[in-house]
Design a protein that fits this description.
alpha+beta, Phosphorylase Kinase, domain 1, Aminoglycoside 3'-phosphotransferase, Chain: A, domain 2, 2 domains, 5-stranded antiparallel beta sheet, 9 strands
């Protein structure tokens, strides 16, 4: 099957780049929603991404904005009909990534992207749907009620800040995989970082402080409580997503975090 996949990718790339040398095609295993293949174009490293659904044009436009700032990989080609995109390939210089000031600056840059499609993620609906799957309906109702008490801090969000989507390169921190990027509450991205990097309470407070210092804004008096609620939301949504796909390995640490979160809240 893999050989036929590679032959299919080879044919597409030869059609895209008829006067260039395409080599070293291989499938990348980390993509859970889409299929990604590494290849070299005249010796330059690239990725071709095959989208399971339609091409996320707005997200890729935001990624282009960030690439110009040196904060995301460049988008080199989009074919909506074939549902593919060709991207710059980024090489990690270290896999020991921490939630540093540099990382938070990259997040702030994403949150300040100007994207034409202002459609906001329907978090309350998604949370309720995930909670039904996990038999946590009462908890979702409680969280939705809590979130309604605080102001909306809507920004353009990445919405999928797992560790694999944060790369330390020789040129700095880059975020990848913008397929789920959409307007949402900025605390969802902050909660994702807290869970993905398993931040302590002290580290969570430092994250909040750093974020608002970079934004040159005062820390809201509701910030810590709102972040705590969004951590609960993020865990429910992520665990349900992984369980539906029967992916046990990435689900287990999140389930442990949810048990701990429930004990503390």
């Amino acid at each position: 099957m893999l050989n036929s996949e590679l032959a299919h990718v080879q044919a597409i790339l030869q059609e895209l780049y008829p006067n260039h040398q395409v080599s070293s095609i291989k499938k990348l295993e980390k993509g859970l929603s889409n299929h990604n293949f590494y290849f070299e174009l005249d010796g330059t490293k690239r990725i071709i991404k095959f989208f399971a659904d339609s091409v996320p044009h707005e997200a890729l436009q935001a990624q282009k904005q960030l690439a110009e700032q040196g904060r995301a990989q460049s988008v080199l080609h989009i074919d909506a009909q074939a549902k593919i995109a060709v991207l710059e390939y980024l090489t990690a210089s270290s896999y020991d990534v921490e939630v540093s000031e540099t990382l938070v600056k990259t997040l702030v840059a994403i949150h300040h992207c100007n994207v034409l499609d202002k459609t906001k993620l329907e978090l309350a609906y998604s949370l309720s749907e995930a909670a039904v799957f996990l038999n946590l309906d009462d908890l979702a109702d409680k969280l939705n009620q809590q979130l309604s008490q605080w102001p909306n801090d809507t920004r353009y969000c990445h919405n999928d800040l797992v560790k694999d989507n944060v790369l330390q390169t020789c040129n700095g921190i880059y975020f990848i995989d913008f397929e789920y990027a959409q307007y949402n509450d900025l605390y969802f991205d902050l909660a994702a970082l807290c869970c993905s990097f398993e931040l302590t309470k002290k580290q969570q407070k430092t994250l909040l402080d750093t974020y608002y210092v970079i934004c040159k804004s005062p820390l809201p008096n509701y910030a810590e409580k709102k972040l705590e609620a969004y951590i609960g939301c993020y865990l429910i949504l992520s665990i349900a997503w992984y369980q539906k796909k029967q992916l046990e390995e990435p689900c287990e640490p999140l389930e442990r975090l949810l048990i701990k979160w429930l004990e503390e809240n």
